[in-house]
Amino acid sequence: MIQRVPMTPAGLEILRTELRRYKEVERPKVVRDIEVARAHGDISENSEYEDAKERQSFIEGRIRELESMVSAAQVIDPTRLSGEKVMFGATVTLCDTETEEESTYQIVGQMEADVTAGRISVNSPIARAIMGKLVGDVVRVRVPKGERELEITHVKFV
After folding, report:
1. Which residues contact 38 (CB under 8 A, 6 or more apart)?
2. Which of 75, 93, 112 is the last residue of a domain?
């Protein structure tokens, strides 16, 4: 049985785009590179051939990995959700109770997380601490900088 992995529609599209690129661009290119290297003669001492074969192995492995991720995706569209309860897909504003610094994050699947873009993995310590909580709730979270106390000030679904 395939374990389903939560993902936003945007995250699934990113995976599908990467998969298409590997299948339609990268795979044919490496096949041509192997043919060209093979045409140079003795492949036993041909570094171009060895490099191309190594690249082909990487590409085939990445294609299998992407196909597996796409087939395991459980797409959850945040625009179809609502409420004040923190759940997958929510965009949550948190206020550090000590510094009063605000941070806003969208809770997304592990494969689409990018902290610099404000997207944190559903498996991250912050996301795990706030899942199921409501606006006004305060949670304690252990992060690399130590323990922080965060208040949930806003939840929206976009």
Report:
1. 46, 49
2. 75
- 57 Cβ partners below 8 Å, 6+ apart? none
Per the structure, the complete domain to which residue 152 belongs is given by: 78-156
Q: Express each pLDDT in 66-87 by its tens digit.
A: 999 999 999 999 989 888 899 9
19 neighbors 86 (Cβ within 8 angstroms) = no
Classify the C-alpha dihedral 14-91-157-132 as positive or negative.
Answer: positive
CATH of the domain at 33: 1.10.287.180
Q: What is the CATH number of the domain that holds 149?
A: 3.10.50.30
Quickly tell me which residue has 């590997």 as its tokens. Answer: 22
Q: Give Cα 111 to chain centroid, integer Å.
A: 2
pLDDT in tens, 12-32: 999 999 999 999 999 999 999
Report how far residue 93's alpha carbon sits from residue 154's, in angstroms, rounded to the nearest whole number: 5
